[in-house]
UniProtKB/TrEMBL annotation:
Name of this chain's protein: SSD domain-containing protein
One GO CC term, this protein: plasma membrane
Pfam family, one: MMPL
Residue ranges annotated for the SSD domain, each copy included: 281-407
UniProt keyword annotations, A-Z: Cell membrane, Membrane, Transmembrane, Transmembrane helix
Subcellular location(s) of the protein: Cell membrane
TM region(s), chain numbering: 25-44, 257-275, 282-301, 307-327, 381-406, 756-789, 809-830, 851-874, 886-907
Highest taxon of source: Bacteria
Alphabetized InterPro entries for the sequence: MMPL_dom (IPR004869), Mycobact_MmpL (IPR050545), SSD (IPR000731)
PROSITE patterns: SSD
Length: 918
């Protein structure tokens, strides 16, 4: 039973006036909404969808800044891997080598390819490196025209190739994979002792950041190549890499467009089931569709860089909007079924629902707004566009739907169908009877089970001030966050991780503390410097003239830059040896490795096979340890080797490891684990190694990584590596490992603070709007039950190591959104309870039953529709959208149970004046 128009006007004066206004001017308002919708629809084509961890995360984060610095200066930031594994025999077969070269050429021809950084047997920079009586020998591993069809010539070419690969301990592990008789991976260094066979060749491609702007056509070209070469049953083709992963996420979303059609069909079916007429099924879709178009149009107009996770925004708007639509449509048809005119039914529907709708939408907007406090681009996108979409729902659902009902009144039979359904009375009566007797302990027991389960999964009883819920992993497995475990993309990645040294990159930039000066071109240093034999004295004099002339003369004083310093290279060598021995690091590479290789080649006598014992940096300390009487200068030897490499290599061949000023370089590595706990551990271990060795003779001259951002302003990175103190910040690493650690830092900072901020804002707003602290407390109880269950789900996903669903930063956005959704039901229920208490003169049981019959049934329909909306999220190969769907679906199920059972109990026991005092 509902209030009369007179009493409604007295209690909701502004709502009645608003209803009168929109009904009076319904034609101009509907026309205005139509025009605005059409205009914004024209902007949808400008949507900028991309997946880029560097733009997702805050540029001020040290890991993000370090990653960008390494990418901009050395490349190797957008790596893609093609692995070809021959099924019969070994890789040294002419047809197989030519196939690798053919694929290499196709990959280089793709847009944005950085050909000079490719690493494979056909790459320009990868050469046979040897020595003869005339010195160093650098040659291409395979002829540009491929392996000859002449068997004798081919045999010579393949033997040369084998010697070039397997005789290069520096680059060999990144070119070829070995397996034993059982098919298990052999380490490159164990290939001879364990009787291993060369079975795989790798193509590591590098692409510029411009690839992110053409992801869809680019990845479709890659997939076409995969399909083409995958038809050859003589070899196995495996593909992975950051640009391929991120681009295919976008393509998979586009390819699964039909799932969204299924979702819409489920929504229409649910609406038809509820209202049994075309108006009830169509008008809510029109209203919500208008909101979605408006929001997508604003996204396109703003040119905001969006990710595949932003697909949740239109789905949430559809889900939340249908919830509001069901409430207002249900109310209109109930009033119309009583025999009133369409205008009276619309007036009552609008005036009765506009207040709870406004309160619900405000709390939803608060939930979105708190996301804007996190410095993550897609959090901000959720916040801005979510708030805009929520605001439009006031007009497109609560207002537009009743206006459409007036404009298209339907038949008398349809009006009669607007009454309450039999199932609604059964559900309402059953819940009322349940709560009136001993059955009221069932919802209490349900909540106790949820809290107990969440306590177990989060391990909160063993929490500390540093980690309140140690059972909930906040780190990210990027691959599993991108794709589900059963997807072919993940299966290939895991297979690659079994074959290759590792599939996650790490880069450690190294910069000389002392800047380099320009070379003296007009005024050379005095010739007397050539006569100074004592190194320390000569260096002091060179520094003196450098200060006077403002330039540097390398002839008497030697080359500048830390990569001309043997001590620095020796410390890099030691760090790489430590890294290669780490259980989670499969391979490393740096410019120091080339110096080691040149030393090994030139130390061997002409005609003799180089020895691995000579694979070292010829620093002063190393030379003296071998021969105490060796008085050669390590720096001079290194500078000689640098000159030889410059002469023997092409321009750009070494740019991925060292800059032309010789004062900046990078150590690259590949991590052989994707487990978020292990990737965090290896990051901490690398930083600890740097910490332990920061004052070594070589490392005391350099800075590692960055400690602040953004990358285009290094002035903030002034914290010297060798200086300790309270403000000291450990330097970051780059590569995909750096991006992984950045997400962990962001997640740890926000996993609890963000939701608590949302809860605090909702508490204050609810208390002000309802003018009742008790009502606000009731809503907070509901909110915290849902939130704690979300943390419990995160703990469960961690325990079973389902890294597609652990509570990493990309899924934490679900927490605030789910909290906002849950509050909606509570607001509608409390508002309707107040209304029914007025109408029944304070009869609690009758008021509760009427509320459950009407608003309660609408809540059930809303949840069914909401769950239907998440079908696309749960059935694509995308793990991040699957995770969001799982978290929000869990929250919805808990919300509907607590809203229909626990909330009435709390209202009855706490008796807030908002409900009982009117």
């Amino acid at each position: 039973m509902s209030e009369t128009p007179a009493s409604q006007s007295a209690n909701n004066h502004w709502a009645e006036r608003y209803a009168d206004f929109v009904i009076r001017f319904r034609w101009p308002l509907m026309l205005l909404l139509l025009v605005v919708t059409v205009i914004t629809a024209l902007q949808i084509k400008n949507l900028d969808m991309r997946n880029d961890p560097d733009t997702l995360l805050p540029p001020s984060n040290r890991y993000v800044a370090t990653n960008l610095y390494a990418e901009h200066n050395f490349g190797m930031g957008n790596l893609m891997v093609f692995t070809l594994r021959v099924k019969e025999g070994d890789v040294y077969q002419g047809w197989f080598i030519n196939k690798v070269q053919e694929i290499h050429t196709r990959l280089v021809e793709l847009p944005t390819a950085r050909a000079s950084n490719f690493i494979d047997i056909a790459a320009k920079k990868i050469k046979f490196m040897g020595a003869d009586e005339n010195g160093l020998v650098f040659k291409r591993l395979i002829p540009t025209e491929g392996i000859s069809e002449d068997s004798a010539v081919a045999a010579e070419q393949l033997a040369f190739l084998k010697e070039g690969i397997e005789g290069n301990p520096v680059m060999g592990p990144m070119l070829i994979g070995f397996e034993d008789a059982a098919g298990n991976k052999c380490e490159f260094s164990d290939r001879d002792t364990k009787n291993c066979t060369a079975k795989s060749l790798y193509i590591i491609g590098d692409y510029t950041d411009d690839v992110k702007e053409i992801y869809l056509p680019w990845v479709r070209s890659v997939r076409a190549m995969m399909d083409e070469y995958g038809e050859d049953d003589r070899f196995e083709l495996l593909v992975a890499g950051e640009p391929y992963f991120l681009a295919w996420m976008l393509a998979d979303l586009v390819n699964k467009w039909w799932l969204f059609v299924i979702s819409l069909a489920i929504v229409v079916a649910a609406l038809w089931f509820e209202f049994r007429n075309w108006r009830g099924a169509l008008f809510p879709m029109i209203g919500v569709g208008s909101t979605i178009i408006l929001t997508l149009g604003v996204m396109g107009f703003s040119s905001f860089k969006l990710t595949t996770m932003m697909v949740l925004t239109p789905m949430l708007l559809l889900a939340i909007g249908i919830g509001h639509s069901v409430q207002v449509t249900r109310r209109f048809m109930q009033e119309q079924a009583k025999g009133g005119s369409c205008e009276d039914a619309a007036r009552l529907a609008i005036s009765h629902t506009i207040v709870p709708a406004t309160l619900s939408i405000i709390t939803d907007m608060v939930g979105f707004a708190t996301l804007a406090t996190v410095d993550i681009s897609f959090y901000k996108a959720y916040a801005y566009f979510g708030m805009f979409g929520m605001l439009t729902l006031l007009f497109t659902t609560t207002s537009l739907i009743p206006l459409l009902m007036i404009t298209f009144p339907g038949s008398n039979a349809q009006m009669d169908e607007g009454g309450e359904r039999a199932w609604e009375h059964k559900v309402g009566g059953a819940i009322t009877n349940l709560l009136a007797g001993p059955g009221k302990w069932l919802p209490i027991g349900f909540v106790a089970v949820v809290i107990g389960w969440s306590t177990y999964e989060t391990d909160i009883l063993n929490g500390t001030s540093e980690d309140l819920m140690p059972g909930v992993e906040k780190g990210i497995n990027y691959s599993r966050a991108a794709f589900k475990e059963q997807s072919i993309t993940i299966q290939q990645l895991e297979r690659l991780n079994q074959i290759m040294p590792g599939v996650i990159s790490v880069s450690i930039p190294i910069r000389g503390k002392a800047p380099v000066s320009e070379l003296c071109t007009e005024t050379p240093f005095p010739e007397e410097l050539y006569d100074i034999e004592e190194p320390a004295e000569k260096l002091a004099q060179c520094k003196k003239y450098e200060a006077e002339l403002g330039c540097w003369d390398p002839d008497p004083c030697g080359a500048q830059g830390i990569f001309n310093d043997a001590e620095v290279l020796a410390d890099i060598e030691a760090m790489e040896e430590w890294m290669r021995a780490h259980p989670f690091i499969g391979f490393t590479g740096s410019y120091a490795q080339y110096i080691r290789l040149i030393n090994m080649l030139l130390t061997a006598e002409p005609g003799e096979k180089p020895q691995l014992k000579d694979l070292y940096i010829p620093s002063d300390a190393k030379l003296r340890s071998i021969d105490p009487d060796d008085d050669r200068s390590g720096d001079e030897i290194v500078q000689l080797y640098n000159g030889l490499l410059e002469t023997m290599t092409d321009e750009g061949d070494m740019d991925s490891f060292v800059m032309s000023n010789w004062n900046e370089g990078v150590v690259m590595g590949f991590i052989n684990t994707m487990d978020p706990k292990e990737t965090h551990q290896v990051t901490m271990d690398i930083q600890q190694y740097i910490e332990d060795h920061k004052n070594d003779s070589g490392f005391g001259k350099v800075n590692f990584g960055l400690r602040a951002g953004p990358v285009d302003d290094l002035s903030s990175d002034t914290n010297e590596l060798s200086v300790d103190g309270p403000d000291y910040i450990r330097p970051a690493v780059g590569g995909f490992l750096g991006a992984t650690e950045a997400t962990r830092e962001v997640a740890v900072d926000n996993w609890l603070a963000g939701p608590l901020l949302t809860a605090a804002a909702v508490f204050v707003i609810a208390a002000l709007i309802f003018r009742s602290v008790v009502v606000s407390v009731i809503l907070m109880v509901m909110l915290f039950i849902t939130l704690y269950a979300q943390y419990g789900l995160g703990g469960y996903m961690t325990r079973v190591e389902n890294w597609s669903g652990n509570l990493a930063f990309h899924l934490q956005v679900a927490l605030s959104i789910a909290m906002g959704l849950g509050i909606d039901y509570g607001i509608y229920m409390i508002s309707r309870l107040r209304e029914e208490m007025q109408a029944t003169a304070g009869n609690w049981e009758q008021s509760l039953e009427n509320t459950l019959n009407t608003t309660g049934s609408a809540v059930i329909i809303s949840v069914i529709v909401l769950l239907g909306c998440f079908i696309p999220l749960l059935n694509t190969d995308l793990a991040n959208t699957w995770g969001l769907g799982v978290y929000i679906s869990e929250a919805l199920l808990i919300d509907v149970v607590t809203a229909l059972t626990l909330l009435p109990l709390l209202v009855k026991w706490l008796r807030p004046k908002f409900v009982f005092g009117v």
